[in-house]
């Protein structure tokens, strides 16, 4: 693979990752969130594959397959089942800050991500390093979603966005994560999601709602 | 005696002559005489400034009774630029005032104050040392306060406005004084030369810079110290508002330029960031408030805050870019700053004079009660329209050229040399773009509601065109807006000379060869003109075949009659924006529904009341004022009129002093 | 001197042909969009030529002038058409040769566009009815919110080129077609497309086919105009749509645009423009069928979204330049 093609493919997948992250903040329907997460999963897998092809690393290619399966297929499917059982609340109705404010926050977070990754950018001028702020921004968006959405499934989505961001940074800077580590992390994420999903549905059957505001009463 | 000295002396003589004429002339001739003299004073200022810009020198020293030495006037090219701006605005406003001034505005006090105000204002940038600067500055502040108070007898809000103005203008003076004291102390002298010996990177310089910027920003009406501006402008007579808004606030800009370009060039980049920050906030906040205002003069006042914001944004960008050695774009930004100063002076003077003419003709400042003035006040409508085009930064006006230059500077400055540059430039572009968009709404609203459609009140229906001097003043100002927009080269050259940049050659264009950008407004005019002619010819040919037919009502929104009250008003025009920016504006809304009889469904009357308050004033100043008031009430306990108590205080103080000395 | 005369001549040729081509095409474009929409909705539709027929009818009808309307009712429509025609002449749709004294600088183009918007808004206000003011007020609000997106997205496109002149940007894209597919370019074009859809009053921002009081924007402004005036207003708006669609598609697919004046190049450029516009219009109409108009007060969300995309494009372009 030539250097320019590599750079372009890398940029394209990084751009797709970022676009999906922005759209997750923008849209309010949970179905759209889940589809976007799936696309993002595939974009991440693509990013890993491009890195693997560039470095001729078979291990990275396997990681890419793993990422695609887990983030592109399994996790979205799990989330989709979580929402499918609850047709009535398939939208994030009242996030804590309105969409316009969230979107403006997104542009500032992007700037912030760009600023804080300057030390990393100074390390090298490869295309992979140049894309690090994208991962950083995704992690920040994830936090934003986590802290401003009320719906429990939205929380999961924010968490996964955060995880995708961290994974992106890891792949881009470390130039590849050992397969074992990636496997471990992925299984952890899967486990967390499954547990949270079970908890959410239990809470909903108990209380008939999955709004976090109502859950504050649970501490008593 | 050099021409500059002669012109400076002439100005001093004219100020005196204006004062004498205002006091001595019989009431019938007072306005004419004092007005003509004030206008000549302005022209003398323009001339002085032009000579200073051309590089001529001249020093005038006035002996004073003060122990601080003589008042020195020694205009530099930078000062000259601002003298031209101040003088031109003053001259036009004085001509306008000849016909406009009546009642208290035509009184002796008012004309004396105007002559002193104009003279002091155009001599501020000529000041050759600190004492003269502060003297002129204070004189300008005092005279303008008197002018704001002009109509205090008839309107209660004038007194409040003058109080706010006096307080803020003195806050400004104190901050400027403190800042210069720090600087003079570090530099070892009160003349500009010794002050410029201070190392700009030192901590002292930083303290002085912050104090001075705060002081000058207060004068310039930058958020959050803008609160005097939207109050003082509606309160003052229109020609005074025009001078204050178009020229006086620029003295604040001159102050910042004096500090950051002349006295301490090469300051660190964060200076620029501070100025950009102030500018960006002012620009957006100012235009947001302007876009929802329905008092025409308040609207124009807020628009001044917006424009000063853009000027600060340009200046700050220039400082940042220069600190990072992006010199081509930095120079362009500095040029943009001065172009914005000149263009704002031109269009804001036009607009305020236009607003004055409307007020004179209809007795209304409230846009909600105007309408249909285009046929009754054709000259005012034309002038105001041109001014509004300038304020909305549309071709082919001065405002467009200035904003184009600013945008060019900003987009070419945006290479990632440094994180501050990389962060500032996109934000600057967004701020300028949003501001431009909202300015468009604001001035479409102002022009469309006031001049088009049908009259919304009796005053508007019986409006009459202004007197010849007012018409002449408005048309001159409007022509300046157009000329500066059509042949911007001359102004750009003057601006370049003022800040020591290489001047371009052509008169018809503004261009930056390093940036590969150039603008020739005449070409834009020709292009649009060709299209308009072509379409108009076709329309004319068609009109010959099927002429226009006048009917009582074309469609009338489907109704059989359309009352003027059914029209959109300024408030309803701004309603979508008020809703969109609800979080930033927080308007107070009040809906009262009166039901007919028992039924919940039959509505007899709905009253809607909406009031947009200035959030900065409400959230920042009110608590402060309340606190001060409480302290004052508490302080009252200290004095009860008993002479023994006061003696006891003195005694107590004496003992404390003795104890301290003994220790 | 000869060189500059030559440049001026070819620039004038391109400008004139762009004006002519767009004047002919824009009504057809509207006709095409209406037909596509009608077919997708299972109707027959009026045919591609219907807008041209409407236009001829309107131009030959007498305009009615209500009492109390000012000369603006007559001048506004003329100014709108003129600004749209000036846009046609300026934007590099057929060729990138520009007048040396009048480069198609982005900010000049936007300001001429805004001149047209203002003319239209004032026509609405001048009507002196509730509807005219309502449309005008909404129209200006949308214009104000669109402006940051437009400027930022073209700013993003201009960073790699180092110039805000549209022709230079198109030329750079012709030289390096791969740059079209970079994330910067895609994000910026997406943002620009949303902005254009909003500015030209298409779904989901404004429904061009509605006369429902609560939702109309553009139609509300032109309600009181009739005959010739209405014809000008309609043509002006159609031309704007044509130019802006053409601009977006030229930036996305720059091929076909001529860099110097030759007969063959011009022919190819015209054919390419026709093809691009036809595809763009069909795509837009198809998407519109599936979209519902959003509430007016959800429009800022849409604009904020497109603004963020443009902002990301700018940020991303720094990252690319960095590398």
From TrEMBL, chain A:
It is found in: Cell membrane. GO terms for cellular component: plasma membrane. The chain crosses the membrane at residues 6-26, 33-54, 60-84, 96-116, 122-146, 153-173, 179-199. It is a multi-pass membrane protein. It comes from the Bacteria. Keywords: Cell membrane, Membrane, Transmembrane, Transmembrane helix. InterPro entries: HyfE-like. Its main location: membrane. This is Hydrogenase-4 component E.
From TrEMBL, chain B:
One of its GO terms (cellular component) is plasma membrane. The chain crosses the membrane at residues 6-25, 32-54, 78-98, 105-124, 130-150, 162-186, 206-229, 241-263, 269-288, 300-321, 333-359, 379-407, 427-452, 472-492, 522-539, 646-662. It is a multi-pass membrane protein. Residues 127-413 form the NADH:quinone oxidoreductase/Mrp antiporter transmembrane domain. One of its GO terms (molecular function) is oxidoreductase activity. Its main location: membrane. InterPro entries: ComplexI-like_HydComp (IPR052175), ND/Mrp_TM (IPR001750). Pfam families: Proton_antipo_M. Keywords: Cell membrane, Membrane, Oxidoreductase, Transmembrane, Transmembrane helix. It is found in: Cell membrane; Membrane. It comes from the Bacteria. The keyword S-adenosyl-L-methionine does not apply. This is Hydrogenase 4 subunit B. It comes from Nocardioides agariphilus.
């Amino acid at each position: 693979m030539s250097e320019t093609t590599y750079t372009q493919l890398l940029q394209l997948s990084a751009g797709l990752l970022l676009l999906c992250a922005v759209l997750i903040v923008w849209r309010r329907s949970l179905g759209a969130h889940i589809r976007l997460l799936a696309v993002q999963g595939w974009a991440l897998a693509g990013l890993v594959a491009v890195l693997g092809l560039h470095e001729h690393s078979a291990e990275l290619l396997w990681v890419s397959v793993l990422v695609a399966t887990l983030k592109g297929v399994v996790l979205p499917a799990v989330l989709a089942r979580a929402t499918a059982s609850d047709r009535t609340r398939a939208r994030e109705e009242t996030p804590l800050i309105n969409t316009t404010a969230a979107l403006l926050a997104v542009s500032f977070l992007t700037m912030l991500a760009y600023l804080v990754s300057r030390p990393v950018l100074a390390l090298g001028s490869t295309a992979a390093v140049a894309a690090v702020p994208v991962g950083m921004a995704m992690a920040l968006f994830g936090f934003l979603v986590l802290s401003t959405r009320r719906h429990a499934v939205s929380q999961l989505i924010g968490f996964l966005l955060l995880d995708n961001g961290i994974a992106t940074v890891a792949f881009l800077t470390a130039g590849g994560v050992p397969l074992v580590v990636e496997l471990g992390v992925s299984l952890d994420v899967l486990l967390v999601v499954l547990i949270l999903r079970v908890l959410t549905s239990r809470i909903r059957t108990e209380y008939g709602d999955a709004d976090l505001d109502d859950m504050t009463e649970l501490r008593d | 005696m050099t021409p500059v000295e002669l012109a400076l002396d002439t100005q001093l003589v004219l100020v005196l002559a204006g004062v004498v004429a205002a006091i001595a002339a019989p009431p019938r001739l007072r306005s004419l005489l004092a007005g003509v003299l004030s206008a000549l004073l302005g022209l003398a200022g323009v001339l002085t400034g032009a000579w200073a810009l051309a590089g001529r020198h001249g020093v005038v020293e006035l002996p004073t009774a003060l122990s601080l030495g003589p008042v020195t006037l020694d205009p530099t090219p930078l000062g000259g630029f601002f003298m031209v701006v101040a003088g031109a605005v003053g001259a036009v406003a004085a001509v306008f005032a000849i016909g406009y001034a009546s009642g208290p505005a035509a009184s002796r006090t008012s004309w004396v104050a105007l002559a002193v105000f104009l003279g002091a204002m155009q001599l501020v940038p000529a000041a050759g040392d600190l004492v003269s600067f502060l003297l002129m500055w204070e004189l300008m502040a005092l005279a303008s306060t008197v002018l704001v108070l002009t109509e205090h007898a008839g309107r209660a809000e004038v007194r409040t406005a003058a109080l706010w103005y006096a307080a803020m203008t003195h806050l400004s003076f104190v901050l400027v004084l403190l800042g210069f004291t720090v600087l003079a102390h570090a530099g070892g002298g009160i003349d500009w030369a010794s002050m410029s010996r201070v190392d700009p990177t030192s901590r002292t310089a930083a303290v002085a810079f912050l104090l001075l910027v705060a002081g000058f920003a207060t004068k310039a009406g930058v958020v959050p110290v803008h609160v005097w501006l939207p109050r003082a402008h509606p309160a003052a007579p229109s020609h005074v508002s025009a001078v204050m808004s178009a020229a006086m606030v620029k003295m604040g800009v001159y102050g910042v330029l004096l500090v950051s370009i002349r006295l301490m060039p090469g300051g660190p980049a964060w200076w620029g960031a501070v100025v950009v920050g102030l500018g960006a906030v002012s620009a957006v906040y100012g235009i947001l408030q302007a876009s929802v205002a329905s008092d025409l003069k308040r609207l124009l006042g807020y628009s001044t805050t917006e424009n000063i914001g853009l000027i600060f944004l340009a200046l700050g960008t220039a400082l940042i870019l220069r600190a990072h050695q992006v010199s081509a774009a930095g120079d362009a930004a500095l040029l943009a700053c001065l172009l914005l100063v000149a263009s704002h002076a031109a269009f804001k003077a036009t607009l305020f004079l236009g607003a004055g003419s409307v007020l004179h003709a209809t007795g209304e400042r409230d846009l909600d009660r105007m309408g249909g003035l285009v046929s009754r006040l054709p000259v005012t409508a034309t002038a105001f329209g041109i001014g509004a085009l300038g304020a909305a930064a549309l071709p082919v006006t001065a405002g467009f050229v200035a904003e184009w230059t600013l945008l060019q500077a900003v987009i070419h400055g945006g290479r990632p040399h440094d994180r501050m540059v990389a962060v500032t430039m996109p934000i600057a572009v967004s701020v300028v773009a949003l501001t431009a968009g909202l300015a468009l709404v604001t001035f479409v609203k102002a022009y469309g509601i006031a001049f088009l459609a049908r009259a919304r009140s009796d005053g508007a229906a019986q409006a009459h065109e202004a007197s010849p001097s007012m018409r002449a003043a408005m048309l001159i100002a409007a022509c300046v807006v157009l000329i500066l927009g059509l042949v911007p080269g001359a102004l750009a050259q003057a601006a370049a000379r003022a800040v020591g940049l290489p001047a371009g050659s052509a008169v018809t264009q503004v261009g930056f060869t390093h940036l590969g950008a150039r603008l020739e407004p005449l070409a834009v005019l020709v292009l649009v003109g060709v299209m308009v002619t072509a379409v108009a010819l076709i329309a004319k040919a068609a009109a010959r075949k099927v002429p226009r037919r006048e009917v009582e009502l074309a469609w009338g929104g489907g109704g059989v009659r359309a009352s003027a009250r059914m029209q959109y008003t300024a408030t309803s025009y701004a309603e979508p924006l008020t809703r969109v920016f609800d979080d930033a504006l927080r308007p107070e809304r009040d809906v009262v529904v009166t039901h007919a009889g028992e039924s919940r469904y039959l509505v007899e009357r709905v009253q809607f009341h909406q009031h947009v308050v200035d959030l900065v004033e409400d959230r920042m100043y009110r608590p402060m004022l309340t606190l001060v008031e409480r302290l004052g009430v508490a302080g009252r306990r200290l004095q009860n009129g008993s002479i023994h108590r006061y003696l006891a205080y003195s005694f107590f103080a004496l003992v404390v002093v003795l104890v301290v000395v003994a220790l | 001197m000869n060189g500059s005369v030559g440049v001026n001549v070819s620039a004038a040729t391109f400008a004139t042909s762009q004006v002519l081509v767009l004047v002919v095409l824009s009504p057809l474009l509207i006709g095409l969009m209406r037909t596509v929409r009608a077919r997708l909705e299972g109707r027959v539709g009026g045919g591609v030529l219907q807008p041209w027929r409407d236009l001829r009818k309107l131009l030959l009808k007498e305009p009615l002038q209500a009492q109390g309307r000012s000369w603006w009712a007559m001048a506004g429509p003329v100014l709108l058409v003129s600004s749209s025609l000036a846009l046609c002449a300026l934007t590099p749709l057929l060729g990138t040769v520009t007048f040396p004294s009048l480069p198609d600088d982005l900010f000049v183009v936007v300001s001429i566009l805004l001149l047209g918007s203002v003319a239209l808004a004032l026509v609405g206000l001048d009507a002196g009815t509730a509807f005219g003011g309502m449309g005008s007020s909404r129209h200006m609000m949308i214009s104000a919110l669109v402006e940051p997106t437009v400027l930022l997205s073209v700013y993003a496109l201009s960073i790699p080129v180092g110039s805000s002149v549209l022709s230079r940007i198109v030329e750079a894209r012709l030289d390096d077609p791969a740059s079209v597919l970079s994330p910067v370019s895609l994000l910026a074009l997406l943002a620009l497309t949303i902005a254009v859809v909003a500015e030209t009053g298409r779904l989901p921002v404004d429904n061009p086919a509605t006369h429902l009081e609560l939702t109309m924007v553009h139609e509300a402004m032109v309600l009181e105009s009739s005959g010739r005036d209405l014809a000008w207003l309609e043509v002006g708006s159609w031309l704007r749509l044509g130019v802006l669609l053409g601009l977006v598609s030229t930036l996305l697919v720059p091929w076909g645009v001529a860099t110097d004046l030759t007969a063959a190049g011009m022919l190819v450029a015209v054919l390419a423009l026709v093809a691009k516009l036809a595809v763009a219009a069909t795509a837009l109409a198809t998407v519109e069928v599936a979209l519902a108009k959003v509430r007016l007060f959800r429009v800022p969300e849409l604009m904020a979204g497109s603004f963020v995309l443009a902002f990301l494009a700018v940020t991303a372009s720094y990252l690319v330049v960095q590398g």
